[in-house]
Write a structure and sequence with these properties.
TIM Barrel; alpha/beta
């Protein structure tokens, strides 16, 4: 069981020596399935060895749940085989779109916060869940300008989760980034989400580019206010897995493990308080 356990994104930067090193010890690993489906050769052998030792969860990049295009069933068929083959307990994706008219945009773009978009996405999520025979876990994404919004983002997310029956991946750093950039209260936002549906959490660092803009880069250490928001959020959540995202500018693994241990310490602190208060 992965509840309250802390994992790490598995990267090729350290992948070939991952099982031999002793500096980074996560409870599980996460990959983007698109990067490993149908892979052969050396890296397939490495991946098979690592997944024999560590539970695997998947965080996708190309489902593009918000696109107007039909779902890509060639991809979904390969994905289902992969998820079953590696006994993947959680498959999550971004509440965004990245394809249009078969053009891959190579970015995770925001969906308009509108009722017609809710209905469109709910139908697609149900279709995906029925085909994969498992719940889809959707992530709140960072964005830098709203697009034709007719409702609040938290209302948009809540409606999709509740009407589709999917689960929520709560990315605490994304909430912090959006709250900073769009000038709203991050705690009010989190409190308005369907927290009973949270199945997974992400934590990451970001980069501040100006006095009024920060970018969700996954390339820096987590800052204290994001750790504080994580601790505040945990008190209202059932135990779920937590993933430390670090996609580039990866430090030495012993330093990366310090963030893993800091997350573990916060989880233990919150759970100890919860038990003592009970």
């Amino acid at each position: 069981m992965l509840e309250d356990q802390v994992g790490i994104g598995f990267r090729r930067d350290f992948g070939d020596s991952f099982l031999e090193q002793k500096d980074l010890k996560p409870a599980f690993i996460e990959v983007a399935p698109e990067n490993w489906i149908n892979l052969g050769g050396y890296w397939k052998k490495v991946f098979d060895r690592v997944t024999e030792e560590y539970p695997l969860v998947c965080h996708g990049l190309s489902l593009s749940i918000g696109s107007p295009d039909p779902l890509d069933y060639d991809f979904l068929k390969e994905l289902k085989v992969f998820l079953d083959q590696y006994n993947v307990s959680i498959y999550s994706e971004h509440l965004s779109y990245s394809k249009s008219q078969n053009a891959h945009l190579y970015d995770l773009l925001p969906i308009p916060f509108r009722e017609d978009a809710v209905k469109h996405i709910v139908a697609r999520i149900i279709e995906v869940q029925d085909f994969l025979e498992r719940p889809l876990v959707i992530e709140n994404v960072s964005y830098y300008t709203p697009v034709a919004a007719e409702m609040k983002e938290e209302e948009f997310i809540s409606a999709i989760v509740q009407e589709s029956g999917c689960k929520l991946l709560l990315d605490v750093n994304n909430v912090y980034v959006n709250a900073f950039n769009h000038n709203y209260d991050e705690k009010d936002f989190i409190s308005a989400l369907p927290l009973e549906s949270v199945a997974y959490m992400h934590m990451a660092g970001h980069t501040q580019f100006s006095d009024d803009c920060i970018i969700d880069t996954h390339g820096e250490d987590i800052i204290d206010p994001v750790f504080d928001l994580f601790e505040w959020t945990l008190k209202d959540l059932k135990p779920v897995p937590v993933l430390l995202e670090r996609d580039f500018n990866i430090p030495e693994l012993d330093k990366l493990n310090l963030e893993v241990e800091q997350l573990r310490g916060i989880i233990q602190k919150v759970r100890t308080k919860t038990v003592s208060h009970a």
